[in-house]
Write a structure and sequence with these properties.
By secondary structure, the protein is an all-alpha fold. It has one domain (2-46, 64-346): Hydantoin permease (Orthogonal Bundle). It is 79% helix and 0% strand. The protein contains 15 helices and no strands. The longest helix is centred in the middle third of the chain and has 49 residues, at 115-163.
Length: 403
């Protein structure tokens, strides 16, 4: 069992990054507002996004390089576009996931109700873990986090379903009101995560191979599939929690991370009893902490790699970028917290409209001539990928028309 767990890593890091706002916030809201009616949407977007996340793993084994190296091979401008988009969004995304984590920390640990103080504490703890322990500690830590998250979430779902007295329909629906349609777009767009996480996946895969060169392609594929299926399963769990506990309650969630966290915990404990507070709080907190720490690790790795590939001599180290991201995130809490909603909206829109771009580029990389014969994708995967690109393109255009 220990040997088995040692070979896992990048796939679970992917799960840690993806299982965050899309699950705790969006999936719970989906269950609370629509019962089990949007399960079709959760499964559909996970299905069509799968190839493009998976290509991050495949490309590393096929070429020995990350997707960012491939972006440069296509054209330097592709790398520059990625750098600019990332520079616009990394601080906002980090602040968004951290503020929800901080709100949950208040509910779980108390000590102080100042959400800024908790956000700073969480960033500092995450920073120290990553700088001192580096990838190896993160690789080991995420296995513990995902295990705790999975067990606590499943326990919560089992108790919620056994306590449920409302007959919830499993009929699938398409919202017909504008608020519901906009929510559906956001739900599908963020599930399981933005497509640029595929770049993180490729970087983590290469880091894993550095510390364990005995890992072969088959093991990496299994690792990724375990992580991906975990995100799907826990997404369904959070929809179930929202449906069993909140459907029909009339509760309207706040868009503010700290207020949302309080509402979430209070509503769960009101319906399930104070005895479930520990499991709910742990499930929610580990969900968001895993996202916070994986984002704080991956974004600096991607930015430093990009800077190196662009041959810039300054700010080209992981340590520099993790410090910049930590200071930048804390600064948002101190000086721009009132603008958080607008900043998150910008990041969300960019994630939606760039999804087809990342999908097309990733597809071109794994289907190119530089890929060895044994790693070339099959005709079935090509058709699957093209359908995914069509789906994401249609979805992005649809989302833009709703703005």
């Amino acid at each position: 069992m220990i040997r088995f767990l040692k070979k896992l890593g990048p796939g679970l890091l992917f799960a840690g990054a993806a299982i965050g706002v899309s699950h705790l916030v969006q999936s719970t809201k989906a269950g609370a507002e629509f019962g089990f009616g949007l399960i079709w949407a959760l499964l559909l977007c996970n299905f069509f996004k799968y190839p493009f996340f998976f290509f991050g793993t495949k490309y590393v084994h096929a070429t020995g390089n990350t997707l960012l190296d491939g972006y440069k091979e296509i054209h330097k401008s592709v790398l520059i576009i990625y750098f600019v988009l990332s520079l616009v969004t990394i601080f906002t995304i980090q602040a968004a996931v951290t503020i929800v984590t901080a709100g949950l920390a208040i509910e779980l640990f108390g000590i102080t109700e100042n959400i800024t103080i908790w956000a700073v504490i969480i960033i500092i703890i995450s920073y120290l873990i990553l700088v001192i322990g580096k990838y190896k500690l993160l690789d080991n830590l995420i296995k513990v986090i995902i295990l705790i998250l999975g067990i606590s979430t499943v326990i919560a779902v089992i108790v919620a379903s056994s306590n449920n007295e409302i007959n919830i329909s499993y009929s699938q629906i398409i919202p017909n009101e504008m608020d519901g349609i906009i929510f559906l777009a956001a739900f599908m767009g963020w599930m399981p995560g933005p497509l640029d996480i595929s770049i993180w996946q490729s970087i983590w895969t290469k880091e894993k191979l550095k510390i364990d060169n005995n890992i072969n392609y088959k093991t990496s594929v299994f690792d990724f599939n375990v992580g991906y299926l975990t995100t799907v399963f826990l997404g369904l769990c959070f929809v179930g929690l929202g449906a069993y506990v909140m459907f029909g309650s009339g509760e309207k969630f706040s868009d503010q991370g700290g207020v949302f966290a309080t509402q979430l915990i209070n509503l769960y404990t009101t319906n399930l009893g104070d005895g479930m507070l520990f499991f709910i709080a742990i499930a929610a907190f580990t969900t968001m902490f895993s996202t916070t720490i994986t984002c704080l690790d991956a974004s600096p790795r991607a930015m430093s790699k990009t800077i190196n590939l662009l041959n810039f001599n300054k700010l080209n180290s992981y340590e520099s970028w993790i410090l910049i991201l930590s200071i930048g995130t804390i600064s948002i809490f101190v000086f721009f917290v009132s603008e958080m909603g607008s900043l998150v909206k910008i990041a969300t829109i960019l994630s939606f409209i760039t999804a087809p771009l990342y999908a097309i580029i990733n597809y071109l990389l794994v289907s190119g001539k530089q890929i060895p014969e044994k790693y070339k994708i099959s005709l079935t995967m090509k058709i699957y990928s093209i359908l995914g690109i069509i789906f994401l393109s249609f979805f992005s255009i649809w989302y833009i028309t709703l703005l």
